């Protein structure tokens, strides 16, 4: 339950994180014992707070921790902390970064001042700080900063704002927004177990502090450098004495005291103002260059210019190398008037619609796109079922075959790659697994074709939303410089499903019919997950030292795209793909697109997307046009389909004519080759005439009738068989004409009889050769019957769709979270609860001398170094029987068949036959344990039950 901090409304704007407060972790815990560790604070959390932690950080559940101490330890590991930090929004991250540069522990008020700054100091310091802008520009040459300019060029003069250049004092509204949102940010960090302690003693977990605190090898977005203590580490006592003397501080021979005196001076605003008031010309300009970062500059420490030398003598700059200096953190905070961040961002960028349309028009546009999507997938796989492209040796589709698919679909190559990958994700296409491996439709494709249009679309949408394969990467390069191929390996990107869903969720927050450009969505996504969008420029601007490396979530090497680039591109691709798939129309989310996002919490996780897509299909069905059973034949040998055609009509027309253009209406063109294709498939001229007359709303044009009759008259006049092959014809003049044609030389023909020619080429080659010469031969069987040359549709063996590659462990459902919390609670009870002395231990108190009160084995009980209770078999049996009679809980040590030891809290129900049947609080179920595997037993103390 959120704590009432009394600092204003902590609610968040639309689309932002949920407002959660501490569970007695703030002011509400006064009067209770102050937790000394994260594990102790976790013990004070209610079960729903622990479940929220495990839901937010699912990696903590792999495997389920034995107790809360193990949970706290796992929550502090570097890998887990990095994942948690990457899930923070910008203001929560800025709050954590401020805590990383604050004293440990940090009061809430001090944290607030780090984010809002010292209002009085900013107002008073503006006039004095402006003095740096009036100083000579030549002083800027005294210092060169690696982050703002090249080492060979001097930094320019400070801007008119002086040392705090580039940032004006925060206004009253900005301060109020920070104060209002800070409780939410702190609560978020507490919920994620990144911060613990009351509001008077906020502590950032050690690993998070190490990640976020600035250091020469890990720059911080705050732009702050190391503390005086860190920067003077290794400095000689004599040099420290010189710094004290120059700063007007009393001498001391203790280096620790000397460093503390310098830090105290730099944190005293009045004394620092007096010290800087005596600075020579140019010193303020030098400080201005380093105030907001980078805190490192290049200068000759051995022979500095007068302004730099004055600063070095007083510790206002400290050497970090032979040619490098650093601005201590305490000095920078004074110059910043106490602010850790130049521009805190407590509120998420607003989602402003860039256009608004009629919601019905949006739905109709999206429905039209769904029809196009279905037709495109059908056309693609219809081509691949006859002659699928080969699989590359390394896996995937060749560039040439991708281009062919793009030309056939009349789309660009990236769009063709999207449709290919979508069909693969839906399980409609796969490799056939043969020796000469090729891609072909799967048996699931035939099942998909038999579904209604809205259900076919739902299958595609349900495959797209959780898919980790990213078609937008096709054509790019991997880390080794190899081209990424469609259907190839290395296309999985774990953040893709999350980014897709979040883009749609942001669109869903807009009013129906409202659209937003990708830049607006990207700004919100960058605020929600800033570390996942942080790249090299941001890291450099944050204050990287020379030779510094980026943090875990920073910019990778130049060999691979930065995660900022990836997530930004994923968002842009999601917008484009949703439009092509018909989830959005005109950039706005459709009604059936909104249905895809419905949570359905009562459903199992695997079934939620299916339930949502089924609901979306029901909303889409009324928007789709009814399939037509007719076309419009025209005199120019074309047929116009004014809408989607019924499947049998579309299939037959696709054989009889070629698609000339697509759009609102599809135009088919009849050619001699297309008519011959229908005749080769076994249809006669009468069949073609009957089909055209039955399905045309206009009379069959005379030119089309003549075309069909002419092709049919020529079709089959030439007959081909196997000699290797033979060619026969009743017209010997036609055979003589073929023999005389130079183009037939490659067929190596010779006359066997006046009406028969023999060929050394195979029948298929002879067929293709004669067709290329302009003839219309027909193949025949050994009995002289015409062979129907219908292409055989290829299918792969049954294949399963590709499994998405998740980003870390999956989020557990409520049932699993509840069971995990109960198991952790029970394990923690077994590990920490005080126990009654065992009978054997009372008789032999020396056996219990190794146990320590409160260490898990109660006073007087026998425990080894692994904290398992040790009692004799007789004592164990007696304890179990007594507990079964009284219904009390018992703490036991148990060794399973594999030799693994564990401690458990059980409630014995029955003891007989060498076994004890009990309710196991740790496993949350009734179990039966062999007594000989129980190392010992002790009743829990009454205050522990």
From TrEMBL:
<feature type="region of interest" description="Disordered">
    <location>
        <begin position="119"/>
        <end position="168"/>
    </location>
</feature>
<dbReference type="Pfam" id="PF13625">
    <property type="entry name" value="Helicase_C_3"/>
</dbReference>
<feature type="domain" description="Helicase XPB/Ssl2 N-terminal">
    <location>
        <begin position="631"/>
        <end position="753"/>
    </location>
</feature>
<feature type="region of interest" description="Disordered">
    <location>
        <begin position="339"/>
        <end position="358"/>
    </location>
</feature>
<dbReference type="InterPro" id="IPR032830">
    <property type="entry name" value="XPB/Ssl2_N"/>
</dbReference>
<feature type="compositionally biased region" description="Low complexity">
    <location>
        <begin position="138"/>
        <end position="168"/>
    </location>
</feature>
<feature type="region of interest" description="Disordered">
    <location>
        <begin position="835"/>
        <end position="870"/>
    </location>
</feature>
<feature type="region of interest" description="Disordered">
    <location>
        <begin position="781"/>
        <end position="808"/>
    </location>
</feature>
<feature type="domain" description="WYL">
    <location>
        <begin position="876"/>
        <end position="937"/>
    </location>
</feature>
<feature type="region of interest" description="Disordered">
    <location>
        <begin position="533"/>
        <end position="563"/>
    </location>
</feature>
<dbReference type="Pfam" id="PF13280">
    <property type="entry name" value="WYL"/>
</dbReference>
<feature type="compositionally biased region" description="Basic and acidic residues">
    <location>
        <begin position="1"/>
        <end position="17"/>
    </location>
</feature>
<feature type="compositionally biased region" description="Low complexity">
    <location>
        <begin position="535"/>
        <end position="556"/>
    </location>
</feature>
<feature type="compositionally biased region" description="Low complexity">
    <location>
        <begin position="835"/>
        <end position="852"/>
    </location>
</feature>
<feature type="compositionally biased region" description="Pro residues">
    <location>
        <begin position="798"/>
        <end position="808"/>
    </location>
</feature>
<protein>
    <recommendedName>
        <fullName>Helicase XPB/Ssl2 N-terminal domain-containing protein</fullName>
    </recommendedName>
</protein>
<dbReference type="InterPro" id="IPR026881">
    <property type="entry name" value="WYL_dom"/>
</dbReference>
<feature type="region of interest" description="Disordered">
    <location>
        <begin position="1"/>
        <end position="35"/>
    </location>
</feature>
């Amino acid at each position: 339950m959120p704590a009432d901090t009394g600092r204003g409304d902590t609610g968040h704007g639309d689309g932002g994180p949920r407002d959660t407060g501490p569970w007695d972790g703030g002011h509400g815990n006064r009067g209770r014992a102050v937790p000394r560790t994260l594990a102790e604070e976790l013990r004070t959390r209610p079960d729903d707070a622990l479940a929220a932690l495990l839901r937010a950080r699912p990696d903590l559940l792999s495997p389920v921790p034995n107790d809360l101490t193990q949970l706290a330890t796992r929550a502090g590991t570097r890998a887990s902390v990095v994942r948690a930090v990457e899930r923070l929004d910008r203001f929560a991250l800025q709050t954590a970064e401020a805590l990383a540069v604050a004293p440990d522990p940090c009061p809430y008020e001090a944290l607030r001042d780090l984010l809002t700054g010292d209002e009085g100091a900013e107002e008073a310091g503006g006039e004095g700080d402006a003095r740096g802008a009036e100083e000579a520009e030549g002083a800027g040459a005294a210092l060169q900063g690696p982050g703002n300019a090249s080492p060979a060029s001097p930094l320019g003069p400070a801007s008119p704002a002086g040392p705090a250049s580039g940032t004006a004092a925060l206004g009253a509204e900005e301060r109020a927004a920070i104060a209002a949102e800070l409780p939410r940010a702190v609560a978020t960090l507490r919920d994620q177990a990144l911060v613990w302690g009351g509001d008077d003693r906020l502590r950032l977990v050690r690993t998070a502090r190490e990640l976020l605190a600035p250091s020469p090898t890990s720059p911080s977005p705050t732009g702050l450098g190391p503390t005086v203590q860190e920067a003077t580490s290794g400095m000689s006592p004599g040099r420290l004495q010189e710094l004290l003397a120059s700063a007007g501080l009393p001498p001391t021979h203790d280096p620790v005291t000397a460093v503390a005196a310098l830090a105290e001076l730099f944190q005293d605003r009045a004394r620092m103002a007096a010290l800087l008031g005596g600075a020579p010309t140019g010193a303020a300009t030098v400080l201005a260059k380093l105030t907001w970062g980078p805190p490192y500059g290049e200068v000759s420490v051995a022979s500095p210019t007068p302004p730099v030398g004055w600063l070095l003598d007083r510790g206002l700059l400290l050497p970090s190398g032979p040619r490098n200096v650093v601005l201590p953190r305490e000095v920078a905070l004074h110059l910043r008037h106490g602010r850790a961040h130049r521009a805190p961002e407590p509120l998420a960028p607003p989602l402003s619609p860039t256009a608004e349309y009629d919601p019905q028009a949006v739905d109709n546009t999206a429905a039209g796109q769904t029809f196009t999507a279905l037709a495109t997938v059908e056309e693609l796989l219809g081509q691949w079922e006859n002659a699928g492209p080969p699989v590359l040796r390394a896996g995937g589709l060749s560039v040439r075959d991708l281009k062919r698919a793009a030309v056939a679909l009349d789309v660009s190559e990236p769009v063709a790659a999207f449709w290919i990958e979508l069909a693969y994700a839906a399980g409609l296409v796969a490799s056939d697994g043969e020796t000469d491996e090729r891609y072909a439709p799967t048996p699931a494709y035939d099942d998909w074709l038999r579904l209604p249009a809205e259900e076919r679309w739902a299958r595609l949408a349900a495959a797209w939303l959780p898919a980790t394969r990213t078609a937008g990467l096709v054509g790019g390069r991997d880390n080794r410089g190899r081209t990424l191929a469609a259907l190839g390996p290395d296309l999985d990107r774990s953040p893709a499903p999350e980014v897709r869903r979040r883009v749609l969720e942001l669109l869903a927050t807009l009013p129906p019919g409202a659209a937003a450009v990708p830049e607006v969505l990207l700004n919100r996504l960058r605020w929600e997950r800033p570390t996942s969008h942080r790249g090299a420029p941001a890291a450099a601007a944050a204050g990287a030292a020379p030779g510094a490396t980026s943090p875990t979530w920073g910019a990778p090497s130049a060999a691979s795209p930065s995660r900022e680039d990836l997530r930004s591109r994923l968002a842009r691709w999601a917008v484009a793909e949703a439009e092509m798939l018909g989830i959005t129309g005109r950039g706005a989310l459709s009604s059936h697109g909104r249905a895809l996002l419905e949570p359905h919490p009562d459903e199992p996780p695997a079934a939620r997307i299916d339930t949502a897509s089924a609901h979306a299909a029901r909303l889409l069905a009324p928007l789709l046009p009814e399939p037509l059973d007719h076309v419009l034949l025209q005199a120019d040998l074309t047929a116009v389909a004014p809408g989607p055609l019924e499947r049998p009509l579309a299939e037959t027309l696709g054989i009889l004519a070629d698609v000339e253009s697509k759009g609102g209406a599809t135009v088919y063109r009849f050619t001699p080759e297309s008519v011959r294709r229908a005749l080769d498939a076994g249809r006669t001229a009468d069949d073609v005439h009957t089909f055209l007359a039955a399905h045309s709303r206009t009379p069959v044009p005379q030119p089309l009738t003549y075309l069909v009759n002419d092709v049919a008259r020529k079709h089959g006049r030439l007959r081909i068989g196997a000699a290797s092959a033979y060619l026969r014809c009743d017209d010997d003049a036609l055979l003589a004409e073929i023999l005389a044609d130079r183009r037939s030389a490659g067929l190596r023909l010779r006359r066997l009889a006046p009406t028969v020619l023999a060929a050394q080429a195979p029948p298929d080659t002879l067929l293709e050769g004669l067709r290329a010469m302009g003839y219309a031969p027909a193949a025949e069987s050994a009995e002289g019957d015409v062979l129907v040359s219908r292409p055989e549709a290829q299918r792969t063996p049954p294949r399963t769709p590709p499994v998405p590659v998740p980003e870390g462990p999956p989020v557990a459902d409520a049932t699993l979270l509840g069971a995990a919390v109960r198991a952790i609670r029970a394990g923690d009870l077994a590990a920490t609860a005080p126990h009654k002395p065992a009978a054997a231990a009372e008789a032999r108190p020396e056996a219990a001398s190794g146990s320590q009160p409160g260490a898990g084995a109660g006073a007087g009980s026998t425990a080894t170094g692994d904290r398992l209770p040790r009692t004799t078999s007789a004592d164990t049996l007696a304890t179990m029987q007594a507990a079964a009679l009284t219904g009390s809980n018992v703490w036991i040590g148990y060794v399973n068949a594999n030799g693994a030891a564990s401690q458990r809290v059980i409630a014995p129900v029955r003891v007989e036959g060498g076994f004890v049947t009990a309710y196991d609080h740790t496993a949350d179920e009734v179990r039966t344990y062999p007594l000989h595997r129980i190392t010992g037993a002790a009743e829990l103390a009454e205050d522990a039950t």
